[in-house]
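I hope you will forgive my troubling you with a question about protein structure. I am sending you one protein, given as its amino acid sequence and as whole-number tokens for its backbone shapes. Thank you for your consideration; the sequence and its tokens are set out here:
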Amino acid sequence: MSNLSPTRISAALSAEQRTRLMTLAHEVNFAAGTRLFNEGGHADRFWIVRSGAVALDLHVPGRQAAVVQTLGPDELVGWSWLFRPYVWHLGAEARTLLRTHEFDATAVRTMMDADPVFGSAIGHWVGEVLARRLTSARVRLLDLYAPYGSGSTL
């Protein structure tokens, strides 16, 4: 994925908006193999990767969880915090030592509500991430489980 991807914070938000968001961040590190969250859990925070890799996975009944995407630096981990009922739709696990900026979802939503321009920018960013993650999950699951794969070159 190019550094110009609209899902990366550096491309999605202006410098001023990134600075405002970062006032709510604190650094959190995860050892390789650590679960950040599981499907169905309460989505009360999110992360932006500083370094390392995190795998997003999806529970598949009767099988091992399917990794649908691996994320790296400057990427958003978690979008469920923005949409009621604030429940994770995927799971996430650190693949390597993972260094992140962690954000409290309630504080970010409050900041979004207080400034509609900022809120709109965050909403568009998370929406773009969500759309791409759903496409990625669909293609990956078809590649894993459909008789002829997805047929996609993504």
In short: The chain is about 35% helix and 25% strand. The chain has a mean pLDDT of 89. The first strand starts at residue 26 and ends at 30.
